[in-house]
Amino acid sequence: MPLRVVTCAEVVPAEARHAAEGSRYSMGHSAGESRDWSWGARSVIKPGDRVLLVHRGPLDEDNHWQADPPRSCRAVEAVPSHPDDRIYWWGSTDAAPEQWGRVQRAVRRATGYRLRRDVLIRRPDVIDVLDRLVFVSGEPRDVVIGSWEDCMAFYDVGDQDDLGELVDEAVDPNGWADRVPDPDLPGVVPIVETRGTLLEYPFTVGEFWDTVTELESEVSQTWSLEGLEEDIDLVEGITVVFDRQPRRLGVDIPYAASSPVGSYPYERAFRREGTVDQWLARRVYPLCRGFEVTVFGRDGEAEGSTKLRDL
Q: Which pLDDT band holds residue 205 (cuts at 50, 70, 90)?
């Protein structure tokens, strides 16, 4: 069965939220972290269709693009006051959302397919990767790990290599875990590529996986930026370099992203009569808020007023 990638609206009108809360399909949930429902215009989606929902994370956290595990559409309802709007109800899941950039990278490395939002996927190999992708499970976060034996028992593994395989399955690129038997500093070191952090006993299961996620974000930031630079050069014929240290570009930006979307979503070059500043504002900064970017032309670093045809 095909799988449709659907982008959820960031702002849900009050009328739509009221209609969802009063629906017979409502289970007391709102459009939150793992979406039970979403709002949008009337579309081709019908009950039984499989979808991959993509949405922004909470504004009070990092607000990155996230993806829910593939699910089926349970029902479609019209919004009474807006006949062209629909409430889409999705099958339940115990898994938490995954970073959209990580989902894109996993698909591209396994199949060569460039996953984008709002597309219908018919390729079985791509759908298989998305179905098998390890989304963060709903395991209890407050369980306390007080020793190496506690860690082995909780995850039902036999040794350090088995625990490392669990970390490796949950991250992209490579991950593992080391045991620290030193009696003066006992703990576990989750590692992603060349970065690791010592967690001294006791720590919780939630703290362990939060650390793994932070390490993955630090590593994938550089990988994502390099991929975005390559995509821009391919589509626009423009050489850019991103500052690897994110920072806010203005107080009106509600968050500073730790990595860009992961790919350049354009297939045609920006108009050549446009300026560097116009191109950056319309195409680049929305993908990587929080990062400075340097644009290069024939004579070195380009000014913002330079026309793209003159680079």
A: confident
